[in-house]
Amino acid sequence: MHIISDSTGETVSTVSRSANAHFKNFNPIEHSWVLVRSEKQLVKIIEEVKKNKGPVIYTLIDKNLRKILERGCKKIGVPIIPVLDPVVEAMENYFKYDLAIDEPGRQHSLSHGYFDRIGAMQYTLAHDDGQLSNDLEEADIILVGVSRTSKTPTSMYLANRGIRTANVPMVPKVSLPKNLFLSKALIIGLTTSPERLVQIRKSRLTSVGENRKTNYIEEDTIKQEVLMAKRLFLKNKWPVIDVTRKSIEETAAAVLESLREFKERNESEE
Length: 270
Known about the structure:
The protein is an alpha/beta fold. It has 2 domains: 2-108; 112-269, Rossmann fold (3-Layer(aba) Sandwich). Helices cover 47% and strands 13% of the residues. The chain has helices at residues 10-20, 39-51, 63-76, 85-95, 112-126, 151-159, 194-207, 219-235, 248-269; strands spanning 2-5, 31-33, 56-59, 80-82, 141-146, 165-170, 186-191, 240-242. The strands form 2 sheets. The chain has a 4-stranded parallel sheet with strand order 2-1-3-4, sandwiched between helices. Strands 6-5-7-8 form a 4-stranded parallel sheet, with helices on both faces. Helix 2 (39-51) packs parallel to helix 3, helix 6 (151-159) packs across helix 9 and helix 7 (194-207) crosses helix 8 (219-235). It is elongated.
């Protein structure tokens, strides 16, 4: 498969991976070209497509480059898919807005949304793993859970979406910050199966070269940790997400759905 973009290639790459996931045991070789903005670049790419035939998925704004690519693929005999065209066309027809022609990478421009993401990332990094817990009220979301329940990667994923996310670890015999229970942010509990937690924690210790025996990976201790966390979530009526078999993207999607419902409730109460 060939992925071509006049920007960073994130959009077309994501679409390609999503489409690939619909097929069983399907792992195509992916050739990727990004920041393609000249005819010279495109001619070389078409030659590579000719050598390694496969579908071409692309996002190109420049009309001349699109024509060159389409003619080249037609000559070679490979399908070509402009992934954004159907969506852009539908939006154009409905909203009647003029297209921003010949401006590749506009989604990465320095817009308000861009600076919102930067601000969210800075906040999230500063409030990772219970740091700077004195201003949790400024968070959009607070994730709570025992160690190794995907709090940090989920927080970073959400921050990249412009969501100010703090995460607070539950550590045995260590009290949670008092202002956590006073925060008006959406608080979500993350949990997982004790068996899965044992595996993850053992892998973590191995990766850092730690071989000493510790309660950190003791199954009975972990069961107690998970049980205590669930009781806390239930007591405070916090939404709970089980991350046992979820990817970071799936966990983040569940968090965002909870945030949507949380905002709707607040608006209706107002």
